């Protein structure tokens, strides 16, 4: 391989740069013992140019390639936008989008203070909902899913992403795991209250009314294309739909 090919072997859909390599995940983050996580790319976590995480790259790729999000007028609801600043920055400035962001404890004046388990929005308010790495922090996750379904317009869609284990049949949550240290050990993060099992997560989303569609970039395009973005065959997006 020539050096020229090497320098352009990776690509970031967020900043549109061809880069030599991605930055690995910080060693403080880890895969909890006994779980095999999906969407887990510790060696290619961060874009060296814009700092976009692997999941942000996948979201932006999906939105631009597979949806009409940037072409038609849409009302977008993004929960805890600080978790995905690169996605937020792209959506918030787009002229055809009415962008609403909300969080339990907002970090900027534009983000609304809200509780996802008890939203104050009317039924059928949003065309698109981005709820990424939120539900694993919420004890009453089914209630939150129900609220997101309620405020989504018929015909709307959303990205509902959580940490998922593919090697367990049941989601793991234990009320005896109380402290931040215990949660970090059990679930891989001090704020998480469970690790979802893949099939169970899909069932929970379906139980509130969503139709769930998995989007896998390696299957849709090729494993080569996935690798170029620092992703793998084990990266799936959980796209929810509210059908008529
Ligand atoms: Zn980038």
CATH superfamily: Vaccinia Virus protein VP39
What series of H and E elements makes up the topology?
HEEHEHEEEHEEHEHEHHE
User: What portion of residues belong to β-strands?
Assistant: 15-25%
Describe the main β-sheet briefly. 7 strands, mixed
What's the total helix number?
8
| Mean pLDDT rating | 92
Task: Give the low-confidence spans.
Answer: 1-7
- Give me the side-by-side strand order of the main sheet: 5-4-3-6-7-11-10
Kindly list the characteristics that best describe this protein.
Rossmann fold, binds zinc ion, seven-stranded mixed β-sheet, alpha/beta, 244 residues, disordered N terminus, two-stranded antiparallel ribbon, globular
Structure description:
There is one protein chain. The protein is of the alpha/beta class and about 240 residues long. The protein has one domain: Rossmann fold (3-Layer(aba) Sandwich), CATH 3.40.50. It is about 25% helix and about 20% strand. The protein has 8 helices and 11 strands. The strands form 3 sheets. The protein has a 7-stranded mixed beta sheet with strand order 5-4-3-6-7-11-10, sandwiched between helices. Strand 1 (about 10) and strand 2 (about 15-20) form a beta hairpin. The model is unreliable at about 1-5 (pLDDT under 50). It binds zinc ion. The site of zinc ion (ZN) has 8 residues, from loops.
